[in-house]
């Protein structure tokens, strides 16, 4: 999932999402569907918004609302989290179920994948039980055609009792009929829809509870569905039901009927789990009957290619080497492509700085103001942009490309077994992949994990996945200290391989931290889950570029710049306000220096990490500015010039290694910390999320520095 500016969050729905209508007669439409069926693409096409989409499950864990209009009718579309079921095993399933049940929707549009329609119908049947005002949108009809799948949409509509539309969401013209159909369905009287036939004793129990519900004010809830959910006794559903129908809804008559109905089930060997298994079995059998004769297949040559690719990319002996090789390739392209643009930007900003300084002198600006603006704010801000922008502008499109073609779910599949061995949920591999983009997004993505214990494990260890903001720092330090005297592709390849090794180390530390927590604070048994591998799809180059540049690169760069500007001002002030014979900055660095030396760093580096708490992107620029305030050089330039600053201030190879390790393993940025607090609801667990990686970083740096000192002594 990408954190978007329009994301309302799961908690908003749980507490009652505020629906923003543009006019009194607007219809509220819930947009539902399994993960990876193109639901967000449909939403974007109808509303003109840019909700981030991705070719792997678990992307949307928050909800978004947008507005559309057709033939004079307005529609408020709510894109709820993708889910395989409404049985509410996880946070996103709860959000989806709660909004469909209690959100007072006028209709529901369920987006399905034409290439695996039978599996998608499980969710469709559950939604139809809740709301007969449902429209089924069979998406990806073009892929189904390429795979030799034929679908009789009219026959499906007749069997389900609701409209069924075929579409290709990426082609907006195929969506023209959807809004008109939703308008008609929302305003039409409720009609007969398909009825899922459950086990005989289940049907008898449901009928018994339904009888007790007769005459009760259920608002928009379906009595048969409500009876089934009351028998299921899902605590989360009962809490929401109390808020929707009132605390006195479960009166004595209804409670007595429930007790008797559950006794009937118990006498036939049905406990809670058996009941749920029976419901799922009935749904699957009904879905199979619905598609029988309506969906026909022929052999598809592409299926063989997909299977061959999967055997290679997820094979026992080939999966991990190919993952590492592909990561190294992406990083090689990033490093070799970023060097020259970074140098050009540095020279450009240096020239602009000279002009701006001259302009300030021309208008007789006071020296303190010139220093604050040019030596503080401007210098830090431009260094952030020149160092960060080029690698991000290359890395993000490449990362998004892998996401778009469907490789990231294969990475999650490959990492499932190691996480299970750490007594965690394999879904943590998905959230870790999200963390490589942004740790805050990875923390939010942990909502896809069902178990609270395993969700906490994923949240607390997500910061070990180095986010995009740390990549430019890694590249600069590796280039300065480990590329040697080599130039060109050879040096770039060395940097790319070392960066790959650093990222792999982050993954290994994630396993270690997860194992440690699961054996101590969060001990327990790992749960199982189903991970769907989506088909390989041709990438949409235009959308990749737009999404990666505007939704990721500029968003992250803007966040860093907003923090960098005031940081530059604060640094300049600290460097020019004296207490005795030393500046405040020098006092702070000197105070931290003994501990910094113990870690193989120095006080200025530790101070840079502390002042860089708002964003990982500005740690190295702050360190450089601290050195710069000591008068090392008057401007920040290319990577080589940055290297000169570091070496002149005592950096060695050991310092560089310790800096990289501490950058990989230290407290998360402020955005991630606040996100952890929001997701856990606890300052205690938030403190663990801060302290845990920091302890790992301190231990790693102390070990490296200790070994280096030992060898130097010997």
Your description of this structure?
It contains 30 helices and ten strands. With 714 residues, it is of the alpha/beta class. Residues 1-16, 52-61 and 631-636 have low confidence and may be disordered. The strands form three sheets. The chain has a six-stranded mixed sheet, sandwiched between helices. It has a two-stranded antiparallel sheet with strand order 6-8. A two-stranded antiparallel ribbon has the order 9-10. It has helices at 10-14, 39-47, 91-102, 117-130, 141-146, 153-160, 176-187, 200-213, 223-232, 235-245, 252-267, 272-291, 301-313, 319-362, 367-405, 408-414, 416-421, 428-437, 439-445, 452-461, 471-482, 489-519, 541-576, 584-598, 603-611, 619-629, 639-648, 653-664, 670-680, 683-713, and strands at residues 27-33, 64-70, 73-79, 107-113, 134-139, 150-151, 164-166, 295-296, 578-579, 582-583. It has three domains: 10-187, 3-Layer(aba) Sandwich (Rossmann fold), CATH 3.40.50.300; 200-296, Orthogonal Bundle (Helix Hairpins); 319-523 and 563-713, no CATH class.
């Amino acid at each position: 999932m990408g954190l978007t500016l329009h994301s309302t969050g799961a908690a908003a729905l749980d507490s009652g999402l505020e629906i923003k209508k543009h006019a009194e007669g607007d219809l509220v439409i819930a947009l539902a569907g399994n993960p990876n069926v193109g639901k967000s693409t449909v939403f974007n096409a109808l509303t003109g918004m840019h909700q981030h989409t991705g070719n792997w499950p678990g992307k949307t864990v928050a909800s978004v609302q947008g507005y559309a209009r057709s033939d004079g009718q307005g529609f408020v579309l709510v894109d709820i989290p993708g889910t395989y079921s409404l049985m509410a095993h996880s946070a996103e399933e709860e959000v989806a179920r709660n909004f469909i049940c209690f959100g007072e929707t006028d209709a529901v549009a369920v987006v399905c994948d034409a290439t695996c329609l039978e599996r998608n119908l499980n969710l469709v049947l559950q939604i139809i039980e809740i709301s007969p005002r449902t429209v089924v949108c069979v998406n990806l009809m073009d892929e189904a055609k390429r795979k030799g799948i034929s679908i009789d949409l009219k026959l499906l509509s007749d069997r389900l009792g609701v409209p069924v539309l075929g579409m290709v969401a990426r082609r907006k013209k195929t969506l023209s009929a959807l809004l008109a159909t939703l308008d008609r369905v929302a305003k039409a009287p409720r009609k007969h829809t398909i009825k899922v036939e459950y086990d005989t004793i289940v049907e008898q129990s449901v009928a018994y509870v339904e009888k007790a519900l007769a005459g009760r004010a259920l608002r928009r809830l379906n009595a048969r569905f409500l009876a089934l959910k009351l028998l299921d006794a899902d605590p989360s559903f009962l809490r929401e039901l109390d808020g929707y129908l009132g605390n006195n809804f479960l009166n004595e008559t209804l409670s007595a009927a429930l007790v008797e109905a559950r006794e009937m089930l118990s006498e036939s060997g049905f406990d809670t789990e058996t009941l749920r298994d029976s419901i799922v079995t009935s749904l699957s059998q009904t879905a199979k009957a619905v598609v029988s004769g309506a969906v026909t297949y022929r052999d598809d040559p592409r299926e063989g290619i997909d299977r061959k690719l999967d055997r290679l990319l997820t094979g026992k002996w080939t999966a991990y080497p190919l993952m590492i090789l592909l990561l190294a390739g992406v990083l090689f392209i990033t490093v070799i492509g970023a060097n020259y643009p970074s140098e050009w930007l540095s020279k450009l900003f240096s020239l602009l700085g000279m002009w701006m300084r001259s302009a300030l002198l021309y208008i007789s600006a006071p020296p303190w103001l010139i220093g604050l603006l040019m030596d503080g704010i401007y210098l830090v801000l431009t260094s952030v942009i020149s160092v960060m922008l080029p690698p991000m502008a290359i890395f993000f499109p490449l990362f998004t490309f892998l996401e778009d073609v469907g490789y990231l779910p294969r990475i999650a599949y490959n990492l499932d077994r190691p996480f299970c061995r750490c007594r965690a949920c394999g879904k943590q591999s998905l959230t870790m992949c999200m963390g490589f983009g942004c740790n805050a997004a990875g923390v939010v993505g942990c909502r896809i994990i069902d178990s609270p214990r395993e969700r906490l494990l994923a949240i607390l260890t997500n910061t070990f996945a180095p986010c995009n903001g740390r990549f430019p720092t890694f590249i600069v330090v590796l280039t300065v200290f480990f590329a040697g005297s080599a130039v060109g592709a050879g040096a770039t390849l060395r940097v790319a391989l070392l960066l790959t090794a650093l990222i792999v180390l982050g993954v290994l530390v994630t396993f270690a931290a997860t194992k440690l927590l699961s054996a101590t604070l969060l001990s327990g048994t790992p749960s199982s889950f189903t991970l769907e591998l989506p088909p390989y799809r041709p990438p949409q180059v235009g959308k990749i570029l737009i999404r990666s540049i505007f939704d990721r690169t500029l968003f992250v760069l803007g966040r860093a710049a907003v923090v960098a500007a005031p940081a530059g001002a604060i640094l300049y002030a600290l460097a020019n306000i004296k207490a005795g014979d030393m500046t405040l900055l020098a006092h702070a660095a000197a105070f931290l220096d003994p501990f910094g030396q113990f870690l193989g760093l120095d006080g200025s580096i530790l101070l840079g990490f502390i002042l860089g708490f708002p964003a990982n992107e500005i740690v190295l620029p702050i360190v450089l500015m601290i050195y710069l305030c000591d008068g090392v050089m008057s401007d920040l330039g290319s990577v080589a010039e940055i290297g000169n600053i570091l070496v002149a201030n005592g950096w060695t190879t050991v310092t560089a290694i310790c800096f990289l390790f501490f950058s990989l393993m230290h407290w998360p940025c402020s955005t991630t910390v606040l996100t952890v607090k929001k997701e856990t609801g606890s300052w205690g667990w938030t403190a663990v999320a801060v302290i845990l990686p920091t302890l790992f970083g301190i231990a790693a740096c102390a070990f490296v520095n200790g070994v280096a000192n030992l060898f130097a002594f010997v």
